[in-house]
Fold this protein.
Amino acid sequence: MKNIVVLISGNGSNLQAIIDSVENGAINGQITAVISNKPEVYGLQRAEHSHIPALVLDHREFDDRNLFEEELISLIDDHKPDLLVLAGFMRILSSEFVQHYLGKIVNIHPSLLPKYKGLHTHRRVLENGDTEHGTSVHFVTAELDGGPIIAQRKITVEANDTEQSLQQKIQQQEHQLYPQVVAWFCDGTLRFEDGQAVFTD
Ligand code: GAR
């Protein structure tokens, strides 16, 4: 059984979807810690509700990013992760950090990567008049939102869509996609090899 550590910064609805899949046996793993860089976010309550250690490491208490990341690595490694899941974790990570977990760190991003790296993806989709949008799960590499894509889900953008409605539709897709990817990693179907996402079947 694989150990999973989840990093969050907020609501944690993707965390919840993964917790649910662990609890119903769809993921062959256990979540050994949830760590937030922001105190008092709802995702921490979700973890506590499922009796998962819920920890806070507030980046504002550190003088620079290196010191924050050193402490974050130490906290994560205390919980012996086979897989590190970024679920709405809104800090940019250094290449040293990423290197430490290379091949076992994944992220979910609300766009059809490589389109719309960075922030405000729903707004940019609307501004550009795109007719399709989506979400991507990828292995994390040093390039922001640029690691190899594992899987994507698409939605159609309707004429009356708003940033909010797109966010809702995208999150519905995310809550199916992310647990599926975590399950693939945990059962060995998915791995990172030579800088690529590789599937056994
Ligand atoms: C998710 O929609 C995720 O795609 C996005 O943050 C949201 C977190 O929601 N991530 C990013 O924008 C990363 N660049 P949640 O806290 O309810 O899971």
